Amino acid sequence: MPKPDKGAARLNFAMENAARCGDTTAWLLAAGALYDRARSGETTEEDLRSSRVALLDKVDGLRGAFRSRVGRLWAAQQVDLRIGELFSDEARCQTPDLPTLFRLMEAGKSRTLLDHLGSVYIDLPEAERQGIRSLEKSILSFPDAQPANWNERELRLYSGLPILERWGPANTRLPIRAVEDAYARASAGFSAVEPVASLDDVRLALQPDEILVDYCIPLHPTHPAIALHGMIVTREGVHCYALNLRTALADIGGFAGSFSINGGAPLKTSQLAAVLFACREDIQAGNEGEAEVRLRRFGELLITPVLESGIDPKRQKHWIVSPHRILHTVPWNAVIANGGEALMNDVAITLAPSASVWHKLRATTTSAPKRFVAFGNPRPLPDTSLKNLAQAEVEVSLLSSIVMEQMDCKVLINQDASEAALRREVGQAGMVHFATHGAFPEQDAIDFHQLLLAPGEGFDGRVLAEELRGMDFHGASLVVLSICNGGLYRFGPGDEPYGLVPAILAAHALNIVGPLWSVADNKARQFMTTFYSHLFESGPPEALRQTCRELAQQGWLMRDWAAFVLVGNGLPLPGSEKIKRSSDAPDV
What's the CA gap between 193 and 245, in Å, rounded? Predict the structure, then answer.
């Protein structure tokens, strides 16, 4: 009879005690030690896989102990490294179990956003809200508010946003506990943990001409991007690939790791970040030749393995791409592959924060959009230093002339393009278009990025990401952020997306279009009018592809068309088939 494993029993007891006390760090140390014991012993591959799945089950249980949003973000930060280790161990197996590998990949991506989409969330009562909101903001803000040059701002894009930076390691449990206690007293916050989708769920949700490519850069303790994994999913099957980035980018010099400037938040860089940094810089500076060299490099890393798996872009024309970490900032429509051509020549691309988020959005049904609401050139703005956007007024006027054949339109400009009007109109809108400015403060980069509208009626015009998340976008099949940097979102531990785009997704919009960098006012107008001219017949992904291709063929620089991305479920607008049949019918 085998002797009882007293060491394992002690570690299990330590985990149970840490869970009762709410000590996440102690729980993870005990859980990690328990897994390491299994890994270092004479254990079969199947037994180790069972240990990984069991630990992952317990991690989800740990997340469920937190009711507040900041608590769940904190939990993601605590488990990020451990999930990366579990994923890497499964990927190194001689025969990885694909459903388990997929679950491990998804376990570390956008889980709080997934919870917003799948679970009931109850906000704090007004009486509790003000003091706790102040504490939450201090948890989600950063001590480094110094102005940064372009290079440093780009580095920040590639660096995760760890929370509780200003509190110091010895005090991190105190503010989280205070927030959690407030939510518990009010029976507020999240009611459950939304599980990730299964590999079969995702596979069966794909249409015959679609593929989903789920990327993963497992977190490593010393290197921000040491390996790249991709899982290619079709209705027919699944294929995986892995790249050692240190080998694949061995010709790229420079430092890989973390550093800090003047005591600010840590910045991360790697060979992969260096290529992406140079690519984005060249595109925005108009250095087309240099940009194409980098875009080919991304094609080799991200697209060629997909094509080598047997995917035919002529047949599988819609790709749902779930990036990871710094890949969120890649200008996907401009990536060059398949014989030296831009991918968008053949393929329409929809981005999703995770495959599970995409699956949840894809399963959401809504009626055909009946009302289009557009906000153009709000005046006055909360920040009076921002320039007048005269072309934005022209933009929304032109769009209304296109859209009015399909649905009711309401165009709001200047003082009518107000925060108060947004709050009145959003619940009835099937499509919403913003042609305005945004504000993206570095100190408040998580929940406090802002959509700027005209103030009035008791509102300041600064619509925070956290306020957008609490609005009702349930009926919105499409939201367009014709705002400089409007489609760019930051990410944190657990690859949690922060900012305007994920906030609007959490408010249950199905698709969002926006740019990854600043685009000139007149170019944005022309881009949007072309996009809307294709929208009803082709749907958002294909309309975006056609627009990018047409403008590139007309000689536009990449900086004016490659910025725009689509994030969401990637479906045509509800009722579009009826619209298409009607528009194709012969005159009588």
Answer: 34
Q: How confident is the model at residue 583 (pLDDT cuts 50, 70, 90)?
A: very low
Query: Among residues 344, 354, 305, which one has the least CA distance to residue 114?
Result: 354
Rg, Å, the chain Cα set: 24
Amino acid letter at 455? P
CA distance 425 to 436: 17
Unique residue bearing structure tokens 């729980």: 27
DSSP calls for 541-555: HHHHHHHHHHHHHTT
Q: What is the dihedral of CA 307, 310, 316, 319, to 10 degrees?
A: -50
Closest of 437, 432, 425 to residue 382, by C-alpha? 437
Whole-angstrom Cα distance, residue 429 to residue 243? 44
Q: Which two tokens stand for residue 417?
A: 């393009």
pLDDT digits (tens, 9 = 90+) for 163-218: 876 665 555 567 888 999 999 999 999 989 999 999 999 999 999 999 999 999 99
- Return the number of other C-beta atoms located less than 10 Å from residue 57's C-beta: 10
Q: Which of 143, 123, 142 is nearest to 133 (CA)?
A: 123
26, with CB counted inside 10 A (0-12, 13-18, 19+), is middle
pLDDT tens, residue by residue, 78-131 = 888 888 889 998 999 888 999 999 999 999 999 999 999 998 899 998 888 888
Measured from the Cβ of residue 38, the count of other Cβ atoms closer than 10 Å reads 16
Domains of the chain, earliest start first = 6-190 (no CATH), 208-358 (3.30.420), 365-584 (3.40.50.1460)
- Residue 451 bridge partners (DSSP): 438, 463
> Helix, strand, coil shares of the chain as percentages rounded to 5?
50, 15, 35
pLDDT for 241 equals 94
> Is the pLDDT at 584 greater than 70, yes or no?
no
CA 217 from chain center: how many Å? 15
pTM of the predicted protein model: 0.92
Among candidates 553, 523, 552, 519, which has minimal Cα distance to 284?
Answer: 519
Q: 509 by DSSP, 3-state: which?
A: coil
Cα torsion 328, 329, 331, 333 to 10°: value is 20
Output b/e per residue, 137-162; b: 16+ Cβ within 10 A: bebbbbebeeebeeeeebbbbbbbbe
